[in-house]
Amino acid sequence: MSFYTYIEQYHEFDFIKFFSGVTDEAIFRSLAKDTLSSTDFLTLLSPRASEHLEIMAHKAHRLTVQHFGRTIQLFIPLYLSNQCTNQCAYCGFNRNNSIIRNTLSLAQIEEEAVAIAATGMRHVLFLTGESPQHTPISYLTAAAEILKRHFASVSIEIFPLDKADYHLLQQAGVDGMTIFQETYDEQIYRRVHLAGPKMDYRFRLDAPQRGASAGLRAVNIGALLGLSEPRREIFLTGLHGRYLEFTCLDTEVSISLPRFNEAEGNFQPEYRVDNPSFIQFMSALRLFLPRAGITISTRENARFRDRLLYLGATRFSAASSTCVGGYSGSTAQQSQQFEITDNRSVEEVVAAIIANGYQPVFKDWDMIT
Q: pTM for the whole thing?
């Protein structure tokens, strides 16, 4: 079973026609429901629904507090390698970009872990480009074992693996994964993934399900907003999230809403998502998936991230670096995968969360062995 069967149902769907037929009455009916259908969700993503954003945002806030309380779970990303065999038009790690390439040694990973742990962060997400030659599964499991000694939670944002390799990482201490489909539009996916193993749309699409079935307790998915028509992207992301909730009952599902930021290569996305649209998408996701986490990264600026505390966010990155290493000072400065716009320290992010009446959470679970 694959989520692809659900995507196929919308290959010929006329989203423009649907949106043009949405009425205020239909929006109010959807807002009045406790459980939204896919049609209700799409209704709340319509341009017409943007006129009722305040009502949507208030309900999103209420549902978030009901299911998560006034808490924000914190994590920090750690890039282990920017070596990559893919040619993704939008990515700073594109194999054709003339950037300094680097892969941390195991000793350097230890140094980075010590430096990050000193900030108080207890959840780490490690990332790589897609180059199994430089970061084979043996390297990834060794990295996980090192990081697990320093952090309560170790998650991955790496290239898609088969179930057996996800299980090896789970046994090494990895408990969660993030993987973005980038775009659910298969034609655009082919257009922006020009070479390399990432061209395999289906293998990437089914990766969250493989990871969950291998024992990972949490999966985080999303689409890179800017590559394709964003309302359609958020709709399919939400359907993917609900599919995972229904098929992976022991797994926590979270959604990210990464907007395109500047990267090496000067790629210009066809679509731009403004702040009101972002808030509409986030609110609609919360109403459709009331128990799903919503992750907001440092792609968003500090002022806007603070506003999102009230609108459904449950998870923040802090003090992020998108360079390889970047925390201990033991590695030379490398090129970034994308540009960060919230450059606050862990202490500053924590202070902002508290000032807005929320509780920062550094650790929310332990693996029982």
A: 0.94
